[in-house]
C-alpha cells in the first residue's frame, strides 16, 4: 500500500489527555470503526498508529448484504455495481431461507457478470470476489473517460454508426466506474454528490448522440460542456465547472429554441448545469475563507 501523509491539529480532551482525528478515508481503508481499539507506538521520535485487529483492513474490503427486499428487486448487476463502485473487494450475499433453485440461479447470474472473478458457496452465504479494476488514480480515469466521450461525440457529429457510439459509451462507463471505485478506496477525489450524474453520463450522451447524429452544432456544444465538467471534476477546478454550467445553459437554450429532435439534449444539459453549480460550492467557500483570512 502506498504511503500517504497529512497534518492534523492536536486538541485537548479533559484535563490532561491530547487527541488527534483520523482522516475518514484512512479509517475506511483500514477498517477502523467507532469503538475499535488501535495501537499507538512511540518509536524513535515518531508515533505509529495501527489497528489492533490485524484483520480489520481485510474486513473493510467486504460487504455483507441480505438477498431480499430491495437487493433482490434491484437484481444482481445492481448489487455487483454498487459494491464495485463503492470500493469493496468481496460481497457476502446471505442466502438463508432461499430455495435451492433460486440459489443456483443467483450463482449463475453472478458468474455471468464481468465484474465478478469468482463465486464460492458457504453454509448460509455466497462469497463473491470482484474482479480487479484498473490500477490508476481517479483523476486520470476521469480524464480518460472524458476522452472517450469526446471521441463519441466527434464520431456522432461525423455520422458514425450507432454500434460505434455504443462501443465508446461502454468504454467511458467502465472508466467512470473504475474512477469511482478508486475514489472510494481512499483518494476521495470525487464528490459523492457527482456519483449519480457520472454514472448516467455515458448513456445520456450516447442516447442524445444517436438522435442528433450529424448535428455538429449541438454535438460540439455538448462536447464542450462534457469536457469542462469532467475536467473540472478531475482537477477540482471551480472555474472549469462554472464554464461547464455556462456552456450547458447555452446548449439548453439552443435546444429549446429549436425544439423537435433537438429537445432530446435538454435533460442532459439540465443535469450538467445542476451538478456543476452544486460542485463549485467548495471553490466558492474556499475563496471566501481566504478573503476573510487576509
TrEMBL record:
Gene3D superfamilies xref list: 2.10.260.10
The protein's matches in SUPFAM superfamilies, at most eight in alphabetical order, are given as: AbrB/MazE/MraZ-like
**Which InterPro entries does the protein's record reference?**
SpoVT-AbrB_dom (IPR007159), SpoVT-AbrB_sf (IPR037914)
Q: Which GO terms describe its molecular function?
A: DNA binding
Sequence ranges assigned to domain SpoVT-AbrB in this UniProt record: 12-57
Q: What is this protein called?
A: SpoVT-AbrB domain-containing protein
Question: What is the organism field in this record?
Answer: Acidilobus saccharovorans (strain DSM 16705 / JCM 18335 / VKM B-2471 / 345-15)
